[in-house]
Amino acid sequence: MSTEIENEAEGGTGKGLSSGSVGLLGAVVIGMSCIAPAYTLTGALGPTAAVVGVHLPAIFLVGFLPMLLVAVGYRQLNRAMPDSGTTFTWTSKAFGPWVGWMGGWGLLAATILVLSNLAGVAVEFFYLMLAQITGRPELADLAGNVQVNVLTCLVFMAAACWISYRGVETTEKVQWVLVAFQILILLWFAVAAFIHVANGTAEGGLAIQAEWFNPLGVGSLSAFAAGVSLSVFVYWGWDVVLTINEETKGAATTPGRAALATIFSIVVLYMVVGLAVLSFAGLGDTGVGLNNPDIQENVFAALAGPVMGPMAILLSLAILSSSAASLQSTFVSPARTMLAMGYYGALPRRFASITRRFQSPGFATVAAAVVSSLFYTFMRIVSEDVLWDTITALGMMVCFYYGVTALACVWYFRRSWFRSVKSFLSNLLAPLLGGILLLMFFVQTAVDSTDPSYGSGSQIGGVGLVFILGIGILLLGVVVMVTQYYRNPSFFKDRFETTELPVVD
Questions:
Q1: With a cut of 50, which residues of the chain have pLDDT below it?
Q2: Which of 71, 180, 261, 371 is packed most tightly, with the most Cβ within 10 A?
Q3: Domain count, the chain
């Protein structure tokens, strides 16, 4: 097993993926599509502004920091050992097969959770779009019909699976169109909002001030916690560019550059749109004010008309394309993680199978679609609140596997920490701070979520449903891991080398 991983470090994949298929810009596009800025912002702007007020831009910057620190660690690990298994492979190499398996499980759990939610959001905006186009508002209510909702969701899931099944090149081509469209509309929206503010026709009409960018002005630890929570939700997804490293031109360097470029591009976009929304809408608790609880779950639906007038439907289309794009590109991560786990023996060998025609992890892609579809169907039938609680639990999974991966970087390169200033910053300080921050948030969220009022307020036996889902998913991972140990003990009994990888500065 360790020999196979060392072969990966030398550049040979052996997995059968289509190498050299994606360039730097294509990888950034796939990364941005997975983050889904239009879909993310419409649900995150309202609740965050309600917590931090005019310091919304500062919170975007606070949330950006741990993602940047962790991305540095990812870049260093990828430079030394490009492998589609990313978290699973790297943590297995650093800390052994048991921790590595659970790191991979955390990534799989997070992507499965978000796939089901993305499909649900796509369904809602699909019927909203139909209602706007036809002028028949009753069509929007079809999303509330459980049978219609689930059936439509399964169709979307199947379409996204089909595109992913056809390989990363097809994925890239589809994402160029969807990502370009949503970014264009978001920038159009922002410019239109700023024009309204300049003309005095904005409902809020707030002038941008330097204090908005001061994180110390937030004034409470809970608001800073909200910033970290926001970072998990609004920035998560950039690591997809690392999972396609074996299919990228310049596998050792391009994915790391793409990850950093994706994060920087996203934070700029978020700052522009966030400032536009805050300036236009203000913080009132009526109308389009961001403290109005009636609009907080979908800010753009309320602001589209006042800001864009008759072109408001384009914003609905942008959010639909955003959720659809992310639904499709998110398939990349679990499929390639399961491929690597199957390749190294952590999952049944069937998961390592590659389609000859498309050179993609066909079986793993279909498996991800089936599990996500079953999960969504079950959760949608049980309760809509349960579905939203799963997204809160998603934050726990992301903090867990990002944090573990960052610390794996620290441990890999422990003998090179003080060889140079650059090595100290990139191999020790940045990933260590990022990993500790996210793991602290994981622990804090686990503790807070035991409260029945956490999340939607759903509970079982006096314990918050978010805690039950989050910890329950991790415990399920332990059960699956132990089962796999008895089915194929060779992976777990293999002695991983825990010395650091080749030094990279």
A1: 1-12, 497-503
A2: 71
A3: 1
State the Cα–Cα distance between residues 96 and 495, nearest whole angstrom.
Answer: 8
Beta carbons within 10 angstroms of residue 287's beta carbon: 14
Using CA atoms in the order 479, 480, 485, 486, what is the torsion angle rounded to 10 degrees? 80
Contact 400, 393 (CB under 8 A): no
* Residue 131 one-letter amino acid: A
∠ CA(317), CA(319), CA(322), 5° rounding? Answer: 110
CB atoms within 10 A of CB 483: 10
Amino acid found at 270? Y
Q: Are 37 and 321 in contact (CB under 8 A)?
A: no
Residues 452/463, Cβ–Cβ less than 8 Å: yes
3-state secondary structure of 295: coil
Do residues 324 and 122 touch, judged by C-beta distance below 8 A? yes
User: Would you tell me how many other CB atoms lie within 10 Å of the CB of residue 140?
Assistant: 17
CA geometry: angle 53, 318, 170, nearest 5 deg: 125
What is the torsional sign of CA 367, 368, 371, 372? Answer: negative
Query: Which token pair is 106?
Result: 């955390």
Write down the pLDDT at residue 194.
94
Q: Which residue has the tokens 């310049």?
A: 250
Task: Using DSSP, state whether 13 is helix, strand or coil.
Answer: coil
CA-to-CA distance for 108 and 331, rounded, in angstroms? 10
User: Which amino acid would we find at residue 453?
Assistant: S
Is position 501 within any domain? no
- In which domain, by residue range, is 167 found? 2-493
Do residues 501 and 93 touch, judged by C-beta distance below 8 A? yes
Task: Report the distance separating Cα 145 and Cα 1, nearest Å.
Answer: 50
* Unique residue bearing structure tokens 């920091």: 65
State pLDDT tens for residues 307-355: 998 888 888 888 888 888 888 788 888 999 999 999 998 999 899 888 8
Type of residue at 495: R
Q: What tokens appear for 178 in the block? A: 């969807």
pTM to 2 decimals? 0.84
Q: How high is the pLDDT of residue 418?
A: 92
Report if residue 503 sits inside a domain: no
Residue keyed to tokens 């441990």: 411
Longest CA–CA separation in the chain, Å: 69
| Structural domain includes residue 271 | yes
**CATH no. for residue 34?**
1.20.1740.10
